[in-house]
Amino acid sequence: MARIIYVEDDELVGELVQQVLSDAGHIVGVINHGTLAFETIAFKKPDLVILDRGLPGMQGVDILTALRRLPGLYLTPVLMLTAKGGEAMIDEAMGAGANDYLVKPFEPEELVRRVEQVLKNNLFRRAE
């Protein structure tokens, strides 16, 4: 079970992801504003952050970049979950420090698999 913060401004997508990951045994909070999300992540220090790219306030990649600069949060795994695909978008996010990138629409099973893999990889990284 992981504590996850999902940053998504589309209420329906937020509810879907929250339900899928809750059914998989995780605790998921959904935040719909980038700036509020960054402040909440810094305070709560979740096990995983899932970010949309286009958000009110701070954009997803800006949140990611800021997290990678903060002591105590720079190793927090981040999965980008966004409708914006394409090689340039993926390269930008991965270059900013994303652990994985999943394009909407997605299969719920694929989301759970990716979340589990990112969490597992992060455990190995922290143990090194």
UniProtKB/TrEMBL annotation:
Q: What is the lineage of its organism?
A: Bacteria, Pseudomonadati, Pseudomonadota, Alphaproteobacteria, Sphingomonadales
Q: What is one Gene Ontology biological process annotated in the Swiss-Prot or TrEMBL record?
A: regulation of DNA-templated transcription
Q: Which domain of life is it from?
A: Bacteria
User: What does the record give under GO molecular function?
Assistant: phosphorelay response regulator activity; transcription cis-regulatory region binding
Q: Has the keyword DNA-binding been applied to this entry?
A: yes
- What protein is this chain from? Response regulator
Segments forming domain Response regulatory: 3-119
Database matches in Pfam families: Response_reg
Instruction: List residues modified as 4-aspartylphosphate.
Output: 52
